[in-house]
Amino acid sequence: MVKKAYKYRFYPTDEQARHLAQTFGCCRFVYNYALSTKKHAYFDHKRKIKTSELSVAITALKKEEGTAWLKDVSSVPLQQSLRHLDAAYKNFFEGRAKYPTFKKKHKGQSATYTDNAFTWRGGKLTLAKQKDPLNIVWSRPLPKDTRISSVTISKDPSGRYFISLLVEEWIEPLPLTEKVVGVDLGLKSLLIPSDGKTIANPKHLHSYEKKLAKAQRRHAKKKKGSKNRDKARKKVARLHAKIVNTRRDYQHKVTTRLIRENQVICLEDLHVAGMLKNHCLAKAISDVGWGEIRRQLEYKAAWYGRTVVIIDRWEATSKTCSACGYNLDILTLDVREWVCPGCGVCHDRDINAAYNILAAGLAVVSACGENVRPVTSKGA
Ligand SMILES: [Zn+2]
Asked: Which of 41, 229, 336, 342 could form a disulfide with 326 if both were Cys (CB 3.0 to 4.6 A apart)?
């Protein structure tokens, strides 16, 4: 059984929209309150605050006059906000994300309800403290007879509402295949697999980015507080959402294909966070979303019975000959092709690197024996 999320758009009634706005506000308040409490306790007294302590503090706030409005919304999403903050800290400490920041009113909003805070009957979903079911556009079918373990309601900065349902699903592993692949991260291309089927960046992304830059300039010129400025802000937000969606769709296509075609997929541990500090490479790398691709490959491998091997970061992947093992002294970034002085083979820089990653990954697999589960080895 795996947990899978299904996301749909929905259209709230005026009353639901008002209630959701209140819920989002309370969730944001709880998140920010918890973050500031944790920060102060740590920086002033070197003390760590547990989620259970925060939970008690929130209950106390509901009894205080100034913050009694917290009682007007379901307590479940408020508790979930504390959990989200917990996850944000965990991601920070494990090097996957930056330090948590305060939530802002004009950014995207969200609230999560576990299954004790909504009802799901006859294909209708009703949230706690709301009378009517939500008007959801079922743009793709939800698997039949599944249990919905939680739902997350969100509103994006352009004002659209979405619901994401987390369901438990049984996934049939894919039939075994003999194919194995090493994948190198490209900058011009998105990914370079050792089978030579180079994966380009999504086509429309660049034109959307141009449009976004233009919309941002227009937004900056509008008078503060004017209706036109708000319109311009929404336009920027819509384009942002478009770019995020385009990129995410494409990443899913790419990772699903790699998983379908290959039994073992070897990647290099790139320490994206560290590389982002390098200014020249930063934009290119954050654009291609390497971390997200790796995340998708890892969970899809677990679903479908494939193996993802992460090899240690290894400086020499580009400048070692994959045919004979000869090591070049230097290989500058502008050299795309080179001839090995050891064996005379002509290499495409990136595909050669992908072959080396594959060889290193397969060495890990054979060292672990037949039954390989996804292996993660920490880079030096
Ligand atoms: Zn060679």
From this structure: 342
Rounded CA separation 270/109 (Å)? 31
Contact 211, 130 (CB under 8 A): no
β-strands 180-185, 109-114: how paired? unpaired
The pLDDT tens digits of the residues spanning 274-299 come to: 555 555 555 555 555 777 888 899 99
8 A C-beta contact, residue 361 and residue 354: no
User: Coil, strand or helix: which one is 17?
Assistant: helix
327's tokens:
């090591």
Ligand 1: centre distance to CA 93 (Å): 41
DSSP 8-state assignment for residue 66: G
| In contact, 138 and 102? CB cutoff 8 Å | no
| 350 flagged as catalytic | yes
Query: How far apart, in whole angstroms, are the C-alpha atoms of residue 251 and residue 257?
Result: 10
> In the numeric block, which tokens belong to residue 260?
């379908």
Is 209 catalytic? The answer is no
Of 356, 258, 351, 352, give the one whose Cα is nearest residue 308.
Answer: 258
Q: How confident is the model at residue 373 (pLDDT cuts 50, 70, 90)?
A: very low
320 Cβ neighbours under 8 A, 6+ residues apart:
326, 327, 328, 352, 356
Distance of CA 319 from the midpoint of ligand 1 (Å) = 10
Average pLDDT estimate for 143-156? 90
pLDDT at res. 315: 61
From the list 102, 93, 91, the residue with the least C-alpha distance to 34 is 102
Vertex 309 angle, CA 304 and 312, to 5°: 160
Q: Is the pLDDT of residue 96 over 80?
A: no
Q: Where are the domains of the chain?
A: 2-169, 180-197+257-376
- List Cα–Cα distances, 41 to 46, 54, 56, 99, in angstroms: 6, 12, 16, 16
pLDDT above 70 covers a percentage of the chain that reads 91
Q: Is 65 helix (H, G, I), strand (E, B) or coil?
A: helix
Task: Report how far ligand 1's centroid is from the alpha carbon of 346 (Å).
Answer: 8
- The yes-or-no answer on residue 268 being catalytic is yes
Q: How far apart are CA 329 and CA 314, in angstroms?
A: 15
Q: Give the active site residue among 14, 72, 94, 184.
A: 184
Q: String of b and e for 29-51 (b: at least 16 CB within 10 Å)?
A: bbbbbbbeebeeeeeeeeeebee
